[in-house]
Amino acid sequence: MTIDEAVAAIRAGEVVVVPTDTVYGLAGDPSNPAAVERVYIIKGRPPRLELNLLAASISQLDGLVEMDPVARALAGAFWPGPLSLVCPVGTRRLAIPRGGGTLMVRVPGHDLLRGLLAATGPVASTSANRHGAPPAASATAAELALGGDVAGVVDGGPSIGMASTIIDLSSRPPRLLREGPIASVALRPYIGGAIPARRREAGT
Fold it and tell me: Is residue 97 part of a domain?
């Protein structure tokens, strides 16, 4: 599937598989409740687990989440890249989150994906695998796992196969929810000596 085809499919309310710098992910229109529900169905994702938002730039997130100075400092240091930030939702509401007042957001370090996101706007995403299965690190693996249920797969080359680091900025002090490609020592200047609070199911 080409980028143009993927953009058209997302705009039409379909779900596609996209490459990221961490793992391959499902992508759908976060303003379309039917597309969001389709992501949950394809993955078999439990309703209690929210989806995350992938954006081409921090400016695409304006109004969607509230980013305080700590969040903006982290974004300035690690975006584009494998860092996901859990932030309070803003005044512009989408079909995600489906419950609660926070949303996990990220600007991925993958040029092809950011080109797609520049055209579609932010997408609702989660890793491209059935719930409980390992995330796909390549287009081939994603195709084998989900190919029959998605509109198509964008091949962006191999990913690192490790889901992003997650920091919860909705509480003080910030909490490290999942360790990932970014070492905790690199995060200490921004969040102090935060200890991982709990494991979180794989996302992008």
Answer: yes
